[in-house]
């Protein structure tokens, strides 16, 4: 039995997720209306309140492979997302009422083989986990990733220094989600002999690379540790290369074909083979992102570099973290486009992560970022930026200008539906 969470306003919050959208969206500077076909074939920024945008995405029957969100944490500060509740709510209830309908809609627009990543701090980790298990099902809770957001705690932390945040990972349907993968293995070579294999003969082709000293190596037995290799004819090494093809005998574990493609002679005149690119396996993804991952400090530096060193946004997520999450996802068809959504886009880190990945993976990903025209801090004075959506749009433009190879992201804004 799945545990449920009770909070003031829950029923009304759930009802918000089934209301029809009040708006359609038109492309900035034109009368073109946003549609499923446009989303499936372009990078998109929707300048809109995200609950309305989610309702629209739902009725447009658009489905996403990956959803990543970094919602505002319940820190006791005033929430921007009021959602028309008529009675005042406590911070806890208000935050849950804000996130609940958005999670319901996120579930509806996620592909059956899709995955959602949700960044959260320790204040709401427990509540959000229960809420998401209620919506997605406990069996679809893949796990929770720990991410080290900074190297040192703040001096403002009174008791425990807070350096860890969490990323909740849920599948739409765990049975249809392929294994989430991590980085490729760092293994660069493997042995070619195995103690239990029978003795067989192979040919070392002329041109085989050698790490041993140049010289003439007479025929005979050469032993490395417990494995022996018999050289049938003398071998001549010059400038790190075997000059003529030579027959060898040993307990080989690989075929002549594999040997021809990848074998090399070691410093001690043994044999190993290089790992072929096709053999590079990706490790299983883990729930530990505390080591060797970019931090909040890195994220601030990345964003400042696009705005002439000026700080324009608080607490952005690092690009490397989102690239890591996106790269975990696999599809059966390697040529399939992977559609990514962030409906709390903020400074549009997701967009930059997608552009960076596409630069090396040949446009494998598309993004849809949703960000409202929330007013930004008055202290920010960069080229007329007034809202968070302005920051997102400017960041996307800066990345496009950096690469100069991607089609322009399409910008859409709200237009009221006429009855």
TrEMBL record:
SUPFAM superfamilies tied to this protein: S-adenosyl-L-methionine-dependent methyltransferases
Keywords, alphabetical: Methyltransferase, S-adenosyl-L-methionine, Transferase
Q: Where is the DNA methylase N-4/N-6 domain?
A: 65-358
Q: Which GO terms describe its biological process?
A: methylation
Q: Which reaction does it catalyse?
A: a 2'-deoxyadenosine in DNA + S-adenosyl-L-methionine = an N(6)-methyl-2'-deoxyadenosine in DNA + S-adenosyl-L-homocysteine + H(+)
Keyword S-adenosyl-L-methionine tagged? yes
Question: Which enzyme class?
Answer: transferase
Gene Ontology MF: a single term: N-methyltransferase activity
Q: What is its EC number?
A: 2.1.1.72
Q: Which family does it belong to?
A: Belongs to the N(4)/N(6)-methyltransferase family.
Please give the name of this protein.
Answer: site-specific DNA-methyltransferase (adenine-specific)
Q: Could you tell me which species this protein originates from?
A: Fluviispira sanaruensis
């Amino acid at each position: 039995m799945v545990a449920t969470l009770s909070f003031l306003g829950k029923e009304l919050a759930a009802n918000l997720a089934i209301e029809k959208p009040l708006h359609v969206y038109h492309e900035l500077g034109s009368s073109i209306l946003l549609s499923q076909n446009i989303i499936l074939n372009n990078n998109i920024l929707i300048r809109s309140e995200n609950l309305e945008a989610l309702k629209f995405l739902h009725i447009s029957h658009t489905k996403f492979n990956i959803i990543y969100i970094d919602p505002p944490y319940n820190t006791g500060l005033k929430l921007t997302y009021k959602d028309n509740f008529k009675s005042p709510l406590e911070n806890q209830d208000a935050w849950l009422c804000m996130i609940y309908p958005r999670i319901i809609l996120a579930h509806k627009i996620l592909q059956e083989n899709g995955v959602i990543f949700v960044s959260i701090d320790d204040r709401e980790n427990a509540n959000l986990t229960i809420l998401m298990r209620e919506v997605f099902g406990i069996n679809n809770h893949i796990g929770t990733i720990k991410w080290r957001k900074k190297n040192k705690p703040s001096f403002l932390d009174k008791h425990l220094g807070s350096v860890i945040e969490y990323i909740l990972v849920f599948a739409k349907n765990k049975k249809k989600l392929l294994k989430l993968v991590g980085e490729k293995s760092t293994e660069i070579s493997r042995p070619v002999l195995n103690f239990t294999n029978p003795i067989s003969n192979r040919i070392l082709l002329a041109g085989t690379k050698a790490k041993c000293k140049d010289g003439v190596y007479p025929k005979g037995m050469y032993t490395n540790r417990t494995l022996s290799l018999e050289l049938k004819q003398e071998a001549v090494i010059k400038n790190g290369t075997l000059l003529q093809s030579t027959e060898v005998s040993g307990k080989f574990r690989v075929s002549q074909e594999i040997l021809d493609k990848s074998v090399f002679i070691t410093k001690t005149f043994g044999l190993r083979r290089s790992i072929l690119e096709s053999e590079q396996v990706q490790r299983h993804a883990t729930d530990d992102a505390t080591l060797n991952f970019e931090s909040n400090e890195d994220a601030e530096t990345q964003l400042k570099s696009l705005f002439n060193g000026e700080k324009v946004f608080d607490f952005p997520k690092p690009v490397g973290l989102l690239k890591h999450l996106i790269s975990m996802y696999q599809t059966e068809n390697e040529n399939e486009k992977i559609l990514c959504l962030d409906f709390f886009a903020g400074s549009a880190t997701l967009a930059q992560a997608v552009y960076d990945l596409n630069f090396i993976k040949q446009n494998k990903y598309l993004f849809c970022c949703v960000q409202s025209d929330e007013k930004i801090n008055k202290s920010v004075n960069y080229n007329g930026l007034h809202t968070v959506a302005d920051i997102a749009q400017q960041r996307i433009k800066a990345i496009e200008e950096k690469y100069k190879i991607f089609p322009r992201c399409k910008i859409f804004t709200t237009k009221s539906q006429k009855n």
